[in-house]
Write a structure and sequence with these properties.
The chain is built from five helices and seven strands, in the order E-H-E-H-E-E-E-H-E-H-E-H. By secondary structure, it is an alpha/beta fold.
Length: 132
């Protein structure tokens, strides 16, 4: 079993996994997070759980509606896994009722599309600070 302290990376940068099936969103968010001095990895399909296990990110930004995959189910899988459950998750969606979906899936927070990058960065900083 991996302890939360094992989830930290060698360097000082915090790693964020961005999972979205829209490549334009992945690219834009990746660039903005890298400018904010985060190490960023991305996932465009349903391999999020495996990617989290491999990359050991400090936080996951997870789109609810990915092609053929429900991000809420991925969130539930991550939160059910003893090794991965402490990784904070922010659900991203243009969906109505996002707050209820976030709570039901076990995510720590959510942000509605379209979102302001400053708001996203603030949420990320708060969650990483409280988790680590």
């Amino acid at each position: 079993m991996t302890d939360v302290t094992d989830m930290t990376n060698q360097g000082s940068k915090k790693k964020i996994l961005v999972a979205d099936d829209d490549v334009a969103i992945l690219d834009a968010v990746k660039i903005m997070l890298e400018i904010a001095d985060y190490d960023v990895c991305t996932e465009a399909d349903g391999g999020v759980v495996e990617k989290v296990r491999k990359e050991k990110p400090h936080l996951v930004l997870l789109d609810i509606w990915m092609s053929g995959v429900d991000g809420r189910n991925i969130c539930r899988q991550l939160k059910a896994d003893a090794e991965l459950r402490k990784v904070p998750i922010i659900l991203i969606s243009a969906s109505k009722d996002l707050a209820r979906s976030c709570q039901a899936a076990g995510a720590e927070d959510y942000i509605e599309k379209p979102f302001e990058m400053d708001e996203l960065l603030e949420k990320i900083e708060q969650l990483i600070a409280s988790a680590y």
